[in-house]
Specification:
The chain is an all-beta fold and about 120 residues long. It contains no helices and eleven strands. Strands 2, 4, 5, 6, 9, 10 and 11 form a seven-stranded mixed sheet that branches.
Length: about 120
């Protein structure tokens, strides 16, 4: 059973930085590098939205327009980790952030971590 465990959320002032981490384990179909890894976020009573994604073996990132230039996604395929470095945080970045793995027609989600940016 694949498990994705996020960490690193918390409370930060506007303009500050946070780094989220996601530790992945339990892959029985393929390996970590077979999965694109993404970060989504969800506002109260809203659907989850894609924040950033990074492909498996070659690590190509892509970002939502709202975070381009401020957030950086990266992965460590040797340690089964994915990160989201967030700079210049804004109050509108306040949300629950979820780690996602997609590959081989399979989807997995973490439990989420709260990020709160105070103005």
């Amino acid at each position: 059973q694949v498990q994705l465990v996020e960490s690193g959320g918390g409370l930060v002032q506007a303009g500050g930085s946070l780094r989220l981490s996601c530790a992945a384990s339990g892959f029985t179909f393929g390996t970590f590098s077979d999965y694109a890894m993404s970060w989504y976020r969800q506002y109260p009573r809203k659907e989850r939205e894609l924040v950033a994604t990074i492909t498996g073996a070659d690590g190509r990132p892509d970002y939502a327009d709202s975070v381009k230039g401020r957030f950086t996604i990266s992965r460590d395929n040797a340690e089964n980790l994915v990160y989201l470095q967030m700079h210049s945080l804004k109050p509108e970045d306040t949300a629950v952030y979820y780690c996602n793995a997609y590959g081989l027609d399979l989807w997995y989600w973490g439990q989420g971590t709260q990020v709160t940016v105070s103005s």
